[in-house]
């Protein structure tokens, strides 16, 4: 498929955005070339995610979870297959279009919190809105709402070094939600946290998905966190081997 320039194309009347499907992954494969030969990170992955669903993507290290999330989020291109987010054909976009899609439609949360050390919690949360030149009054109101949502309103003025790991991840989640994305993609967001804090963060993610009316795909290896999801998709050796509701 030929990549299109900057604009984000819709896929017509049958687009996922008109059918209640938030994400559509169709026969996605990703092969990397290495000195030892081709590495098949993904092989023919197909599934749909309805709007508002919280999906746990699970599997051992090397199963393809991160590669799949990167393909869904436009950080990487599949070798073959298609990915659609709402009405947008991710795999038809050039780099400019994918950048706009990530800015306007997606939110990313990673193991590493990625906060700006010199900025306060509130300033970190407001940063994406500054980049979009959101009016100060609107930005401040949104920041206050998000910090309240993640339970950090009393810590708005503190810098990352003054916060615990769990609190920093809460700031990262609030920042990810700043521009009201439709889809949240989280890659092992509790990987650096202890079990109790990790469970609290997963519960928070479930709550904010509901509160913000979002869809979420979250990779995890923790069985206790899988139980909080609406659905579990399991990968093994780059293949989808199990898809369980509830």
UniProtKB/TrEMBL annotation:
Specify the domain of life of the species encoding this protein. Bacteria
**ABC transporter domain spans which residues?**
23-246
Could you list the residue ranges forming a coiled coil in this record?
A: none
Keywords of this entry: ATP-binding, Nucleotide-binding, Transport
Q: Quick one: a GO cellular component term?
A: plasma membrane
Pfam families recorded: ABC_tran (PF00005)
Concerning Gene3D superfamilies, the annotation shows: P-loop containing nucleotide triphosphate hydrolases
> InterPro entries per the record?
AAA+_ATPase, ABC_transporter-like_ATP-bd, ABC_transporter-like_CS, ABC_transpr_LolD-like, MacB-like_ATP-bd, P-loop_NTPase
| Record GO terms (molecular function) | ATP binding; ATP hydrolysis activity; transmembrane transporter activity
- Record-given protein name: ABC transporter ATP-binding protein
User: What organism is listed for this UniProt entry?
Assistant: Actinotalea fermentans
């Amino acid at each position: 498929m030929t990549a299109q320039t900057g604009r984000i194309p819709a896929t017509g009347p049958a687009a996922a955005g008109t059918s209640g499907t938030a994400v559509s992954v169709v026969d996605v494969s990703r092969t990397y070339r290495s000195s030892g030969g081709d590495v098949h990170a993904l092989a023919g992955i197909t599934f749909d995610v309805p709007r508002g669903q919280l999906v746990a993507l699970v599997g051992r290290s090397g199963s393809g979870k991160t590669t799949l999330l990167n393909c869904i989020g436009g950080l990487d291109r599949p070798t073959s297959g298609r990915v659609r987010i709402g009405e947008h054909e991710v795999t038809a976009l050039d780099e400019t279009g994918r950048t706009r899609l990530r800015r306007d439609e997606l939110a990313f949360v990673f193991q590493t919190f990625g906060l700006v050390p010199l900025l306060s919690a509130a300033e970190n949360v407001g940063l994406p809105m500054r980049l979009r030149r959101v009016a100060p009054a609107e930005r401040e109101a949104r920041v206050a709402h998000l910090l309240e949502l993640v339970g950090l309103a009393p810590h708005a003025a503190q810098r990352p070094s003054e916060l615990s790991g769990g609190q920093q991840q809460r700031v990262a989640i609030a920042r990810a939600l700043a521009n009201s994305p439709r889809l949240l993609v989280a890659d092992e967001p509790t990987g650096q946290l202890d079990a109790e804090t990790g469970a609290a963060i997963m519960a928070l993610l479930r709550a904010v998905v509901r509160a913000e009316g979002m869809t979420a795909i979250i990779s995890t290896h923790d069985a206790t966190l899988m139980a909080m999801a609406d659905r579990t998709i399991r990968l093994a050796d780059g293949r989808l081997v199990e898809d369980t509701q509830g």
